[in-house]
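Morning, I've got a small favour to ask if you have a moment. I'm working through a protein record and want to make sense of it properly. The fold is given in discrete form, as structure tokens running alongside the sequence. Can you walk me through what the tokens say about the fold? Thanks so much in advance, here it is:
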Amino acid sequence: MNLFCKLLLWAILTTFLVTGAKAQEGHHGYGHQTWHGSFYNKLIRKDTKTSCCNLTDCRPTSVRVKNGRYEVKVDGNWVIVPQDAIQPVTAPDLGAHVCAPKQTGASKGVIYCVVLPPET
């Protein structure tokens, strides 16, 4: 394999790994376009009966259980999931997804909707 091919392969792998890591950290905007038309725009908030999704609010994330409660990564930080935010659906990729505003100011800790993977 020549030097150009090695550099190209390295660049592709680095881009994939960084993008995947950002998605698993639940960063605002990452991965939204992949699922917006087919999935996110159909999610409805239980509290307001309005859409969970506001253009870029929904994205893939990671989930864990801590002290008997679900937590998801939102903009790189673990946030407790309110029970009424959990959607009774499974994502097409069988992964975790969160719909939340950018976590700044008064929006810090706010979650609109969460889709949990089937195994949780």
Remarks:
- The helical segments are 3-24, 32-35.
- Residues 22 and 113 are 19 Å apart (CA to CA).
- The two ends are 43 Å apart (CA to CA).
- Residues 3-115 form one domain.
